[in-house]
Specification:
The chain is mainly α. It is built from 15 helices and 3 strands. It has helices at 9-16, 20-28, 48-61, 66-73, 79-110, 114-124, 128-143, 151-158, 169-183, 185-208, 214-227, 238-252, 258-271, 274-287, 296-307; strands at 7-8, 36-37, 43-45. The chain has a 3-stranded antiparallel sheet. Strand 2 and strand 3 (43-45) form a beta hairpin. Helix 11 (214-227) runs antiparallel to helix 12 (238-252). The longest helix is centred in the N-terminal third of the chain and has 32 residues, at 79-110. The termini are far apart.
Length: 312
């Protein structure tokens, strides 16, 4: 290409794929200046204007404003610095859009009311510090005053959701639902009762030496029976029931009688609260953990097996 060649606005538009109106607009803003004028006074542009306009179009498609573009093409600003700042701004916009998308998806799926929608939006917009405070309040409501149980420190850590800096839409939706659950007074009270029961059992266990908690014992004993297809009301279930009731009796230092079995039924029904399992499922999504195994079938089997053997 001849370096002395000059183009009219129309010719420049054809070479760059822009409209005449757009080329004129950029020229009026000083982003691409004419090299000369024709005898009739029309603006003429050198060959460098083609490359300059191609670059300008690229920057516009990437979302930069005209003021910044002009400073970049005039070398008043460093392109890498501008790109870094713009990338950071885009990341923020993307996160905001992902949050909004997650909330609207949840609203659509749940048929949320205006009040529920407002709450979900507020929970999704919480800062990291605000999320930590909300979770901290929930864990304090559940475990507060039970500091004497060393195992609870690990339990609290395992129940703490940590939303990543750039969460997926699914993680945002899970966080919103989990946060709603943690604000529910009834759910807090339910988990608090579980923690108190476990604390009482743990205190007794520590006096006798390390022992598995009752939920682990029931899982280990009833799990094989369930897998084998044994009817909880059948005689074949008796050895499995006897094993975990004996464990519970030893754990509490009480005889394996009707009272203990009734207490164990209540304990297992409490642990088998669907909301507890849902919390753990949501927690796994937020933290990017593998989905937890559902213990509901094992607890259902155990409760039924106990009930048929326990006079009401």
């Amino acid at each position: 290409m001849d370096g002395d060649t000059l183009y009219s606005i129309g010719e420049l538009a054809r070479r760059t794929g822009l409209t005449v109106k757009t080329v004129r607009f950029y020229s009026d803003r000083g982003i691409v200046a004419p090299t000369d004028r024709s005898l009739a006074g029309y603006r003429l542009y050198g060959v460098d204007a083609v490359a300059r306009l191609d670059f300008v179009r690229t920057l516009r498609e990437l979302g930069l404003d005209l003021s910044t573009i002009r400073k970049v093409v005039d070398r008043e600003l460093s392109l890498p610095e501008v790109a870094a700042a713009h990338a950071e701004a885009l990341a923020v916009q993307i996160r905001v859009l992902c949050l909004r998308c997650a909330v609207m998806t949840a609203v659509a799926e749940r048929g949320a009311t205006p009040e529920e929608t407002e709450l979900m939006h507020r929970l999704a917009q919480l800062s990291e510090d605000e999320r930590r405070r909300l979770v901290g309040e929930f864990l304090d409501a559940v475990f507060g005053g039970l500091d004497g149980v060393p195992a609870f420190a690990g339990v609290m850590r395992s129940m703490t959701p940590e939303l990543p800096d750039n969460p997926e839409a699914e993680q945002v939706q899970a966080w919103v639902e989990l946060a709603e659950m943690s604000l529910d007074p009834e759910f807090r009270a339910s988990v608090r009762r579980m923690a108190q029961d476990q604390a009482a059992e743990q205190t007794r266990s520590d006096m006798m030496g390390p022992r598995r908690d009752i939920t682990a014992a029931v899982r280990d004993q009833a799990g094989p029976a369930l897998a084998a297809g044994i009817d909880p009301a059948s005689p074949q279930a008796e050895p499995f029931v006897a094993a975990f009731t004996a464990h519970y009796a030893h754990l509490l230092g009480r005889p394996d009688d009707v009272g203990l079995r009734r207490r164990l039924v209540t304990r297992l029904e409490s642990v088998n609260d669907p909301r507890r399992e849902r919390y753990l499922q949501l927690l796994a999504v937020v933290n990017g953990w593998p989905a937890p195994e559902s213990l509901a079938p094992v607890f259902d089997w155990s409760v039924e097996a106990l009930r048929v053997r326990t006079p009401q």
